[in-house]
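Hi U.,

Before I forget, here's the chain from the pilot set. I'm dumping it here mostly so it's searchable later in email.
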Amino acid sequence: MSRLIILVFYFSLFFNAACQQQEDYQSSAEEIFPPVTMKYAALNRMDNLPVSLTFFKDDWTMVVFGESSCSDNCLNRLALLNDVKSAKKLFVIDGLANHATLRELAGLFPNVAITMGVTASSFDRFYAQFDLDSIEPTQKQKMIYLVSPSAELVYSLDAEEITSSDLEKEIVLLN
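Structure:
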């Protein structure tokens, strides 16, 4: 009996030490308060598949913006999103692009919905929802925006300071 007690004691010490070894993750998401309710989404994916407000329902969605020419920083953000499994991902092209560009980006990043505005004004209305006092307009394209399953813009993250595993952890913390 005493051996059993000693065994249980050592097991509990080992288990306690193992639990303390886990690194606590600190969220780097900046809260957007009050949240911005998404009201406008008239976007097209490749081959004219629509993206409307229903796209944002039921799951967390990560949104990034970029030019159709997609610089190295833009490609890095898309690669980062492409690796995330726990949320929907949406890349919105700033301006208009041809479908060949959409297909090329969609081929490189199959887990990210590559979109553009149906018209210039529909893009402007969608983009305006992401105009936040806390983010300089010049910094807007380096951010990852988190839209809740209830279609509210609630958090932003600096894409240059986060990894795909950290993005997964952010979603775990939010669920």
